[in-house]
């Protein structure tokens, strides 16, 4: 907070640059297909997460 009070323009500029870098990284990642795309019957990470949730919600911890 003290940094903001002493130099508000630098603080705002740093936040804008950090946000733009984060958006650029997100955009670059979105250009690639997700894992498992077009490979039925499994469709990548979502399918793996769904199976893990199914196991953990329906089995006792001792059977994991």
From TrEMBL:
Keywords associated with the record: Endoplasmic reticulum, Glycosyltransferase, Membrane, Transferase, Transmembrane, Transmembrane helix
Task: Indicate how the chain sits in the lipid bilayer.
Answer: Multi-pass membrane protein
Q: Please list which residues make up the signal peptide.
A: none
- Alphabetical list of InterPro entries matching this protein: Glyco_trans_ALG6/ALG8 (IPR004856)
Ranges annotated as spanning the membrane: 12-29
Q: What is its EC number?
A: 2.4.1.-
Per the record, the major location class is endoplasmic reticulum
Q: In which pathway does it act?
A: Protein modification; protein glycosylation
> What enzyme class is recorded for this protein?
transferase
Q: Name one GO molecular function term.
A: hexosyltransferase activity
GO CC annotations, alphabetized: endoplasmic reticulum membrane
Where is the protein situated, by its record's location annotation?
Answer: Endoplasmic reticulum membrane
Family, as annotated: Belongs to the ALG6/ALG8 glucosyltransferase family.
Q: What is this protein called?
A: Alpha-1,3-glucosyltransferase
**Which species does this protein come from?**
Trichoplax adhaerens
Organism lineage reads as:
Eukaryota, Metazoa, Placozoa, Uniplacotomia, Trichoplacea
């Amino acid at each position: 907070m003290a940094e903001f009070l002493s130099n508000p323009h630098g603080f705002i500029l740093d936040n804008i640059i950090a946000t733009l870098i984060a958006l650029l990284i997100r955009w670059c990642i979105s250009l690639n297909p997700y894992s498992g795309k077009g490979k039925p019957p499994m469709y990548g990470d979502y399918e793996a997460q769904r199976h893990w949730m199914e196991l953990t919600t329906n089995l006792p911890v001792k059977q994991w």
